[in-house]
Amino acid sequence: MPSLALSAAALTLCANAALAQYPDRPVRIVVGFSPGGPTDVVARAFAAYAAQALGQSFVVENKPGANTILAAEAVAKAAPDGYTLLVGATNHTMIPALYSSRVKFDALRSFTPVCAIAVSPTVLVVGPALPVKTLDAFLARVRAEPGRITYATPGTGSSGHFATAQFLNLTKTSMNHIPYKGASQAVADLMGGQVDSSLATLGSVLPQVESGKLTALAVAAPQRLPQLPQVPTFDEAGVHGYTADAWYGVLAPAGLPQDVRSKLEQVARDFARAPATAKSLDALGMQARQTCGNDFNAQLASEIDANRKLAENLGLKAD
Q: Residue 285 above 80 pLDDT?
């Protein structure tokens, strides 16, 4: 019996030592979108910061498809040791409302929420295929051609899809949804004239708006944005009560050891607080955010419930 007790103590010491050394090998960060989109940009910025802070490689792996279900499923199935992470976005809380029969994980219980680390407001933009300059002119075209004007999103069930569904419901209009597998492809086709419009996260379209390749008509925020001071809010432009934003955050498989969770949470908080992060995110139309631990978990639970009700009310389903 004494030998067994000594063995158990030795195993405990080894486990504690392993936790203390985390990470002692490269960490994989899975992103459910193609390279170049806002989620990917945030993931790579966080990976670079975490690698410097913890002295180990954090490698971003893009796994697009099925509205990020493939990426989330891969992380949900991974060992809860902190070596596989998910950088997800707002659409993570929309998956249960749309894919109830297809999803093999629970958007809340299959994950350990670490921190939301960035947020981006939503902006209505049009490309060369729809040369209007104001929200009034846009709505006039949409109403004149119900169901014909197209809008691009990063995918069915994405934050852009839900944001547009809310907008159409509020304005009593209809448009033609063109889903993509990520923001970068949607924006490319918008600039190329293949689609007419998009309610996109500011982070995915700010450079194109600043260069004049896309026209911003209104921002879904309580006040005008410092990056686009000339663009009115939806409220100012006549569509009252419409706001929308998107968060980007770090999640791990359920069962993540508390020591590892605490270490990752501290890195995420430090990343969000860093002046360099604020500067780089601001240039991309985003703001740093540090909603962590139980607060992040509560936010996810609240959004999952709200989005399920919204999907039911608007008849949104992707199964």
A: yes
**Element (DSSP H or E) covering residue 46:** helix 38-54
Whether 203 contacts 120, CB under 8 Å: yes
For residue 208, the one-letter residue type is Q
Separation between Cα atoms, residue 107 and residue 127, nearest integer Å? 34
The rounded Cα 257 to chain-centroid distance in angstroms is: 25
CB 249 within 8 A of CB 286: no
Return the H-helix or E-strand segment holding 137: helix 135-144
Please classify residue 274 by burial: count the beta carbons closer than 10 Å to its beta carbon, then call 0-12 exposed, 13-18 middle and 19+ buried: middle
Percent of the chain scoring above 70 in pLDDT: 93
Q: Give residues with Cβ within 8 angstroms of 313, minimum separation 6.
A: none
134, 132, 141, 119: which is closest to 236 by C-alpha? 134
Dump pLDDT digits (tens) for 113-135.
999 999 988 999 999 999 999 99
Q: How far apart are CA 119 and CA 290, in angstroms?
A: 10
Q: What is the spatial distance between Cα 45 and Cα 227, in angstroms, rounded to a whole number? A: 20
Query: Locate tokens 């969770």: which residue?
Result: 261
**What CA–CA distances, in Å, run from 119 to 6, 171, 202, 230, 243?**
50, 25, 10, 21, 13
- Categorise residue 232: left if φ over 0, alpha if ψ from -120 to 50, beta otherwise: beta
Q: What is the pTM of this model?
A: 0.79
Q: Are strands 111-126 and 197-201 parallel, antiparallel or unpaired?
A: antiparallel
Closest to 113 measured CA to CA, from 293, 266, 302: 293
Buried b (16+ CB within 10 A) or exposed e, 281-318: beebbbbbbbbbbeebbebbeebbeebbebbeeeebeb
Q: Which of 98-107, 119-128, 290-299 has the lowest mean pLDDT?
A: 98-107
Beta strands in 139-224 (DSSP E): 150-153, 176-179, 197-201, 215-220
